[in-house]
Specification:
Blueprint: E1 3-5, E2 22-27, E3 30-35, E4 38-42, E5 48-55, E6 64-72, E7 90-100, E8 103-109, E9 117-123, E10 132-137, E11 140-144, E12 147-150, E13 157-163, E14 168-170
Antiparallel strand pairs: 1-2, 2-3, 3-4, 5-6, 6-7, 7-8, 9-10, 10-13, 11-12, 13-14
């Protein structure tokens, strides 16, 4: 899906609220963020971005860029001590970024996800003035070697995730108004 997107969040015309409008371009699975024609950030060429949303996903009062992407490997340059080599599978990930001083900075990046994300939104579902991440999850389909894709025929389920200081935690069914 190719799209151009400009976003106005709560009176803030930018992720960094400097009053200049950002332009978000998702073309051929590559996300580019521009300001006044200048490229501020572009996703790496080995990522395949399939969706993004702007919102305060971690409830710290700052707008974040939340993206879903497909990439090889699970940990990047920082691996848990028990791993001796990088994971070679290509799977789905969720990354959270923030724009500060004209530079995109990682806030949080997932390892490969157990279930790939079909779609997601940031919403206050329980009216407590804190945002949750509402996710539609599918299933993987192996296509070749260690490469996976979203199985278009798999059953989709909705889950709700809440930021919990270090990362996201699944909201139990009894607390989730979607059940």
């Amino acid at each position: 899906m190719d799209s151009a997107y400009q976003y106005n969040y709560g009176g803030c015309l930018r992720l960094d609220c400097d009053g200049m409008t950002e332009e978000y371009l998702l073309v051929d699975d590559c996300l580019t963020i521009k300001e006044e024609g200048q490229v501020l950030w572009q996703s790496p060429g080995d990522w395949r971005i399939d969706n993004f949303v702007l919102g305060d996903v971690n409830n710290d009062g700052t707008v974040d860029l939340v993206i879903t992407l497909w990439k090889t490997g699970s940990f990047g340059s920082v691996k848990p001590f028990w791993l001796t080599s990088e994971d070679a599978s290509c799977k789905n990930h969720l990354f959270v970024y923030r724009l500060k001083d004209k530079e995109m900075r990682q806030v949080w990046c997932s390892s490969d996800l157990d279930s790939p994300i079909v779609s997601f939104k940031i919403q206050d579902i329980d009216k407590d003035e804190l945002f949750e991440l509402v996710v539609e999850e599918g299933q993987y389909r192996k296509i070749a070697g260690e490469r996976y894709e979203l199985d278009p025929f798999s059953r989709v389920r909705t889950t709700v995730w809440r930021w919990d200081e270090w990362g996201f935690r699944l909201v139990p069914k009894e607390e989730d108004p979607h059940y």
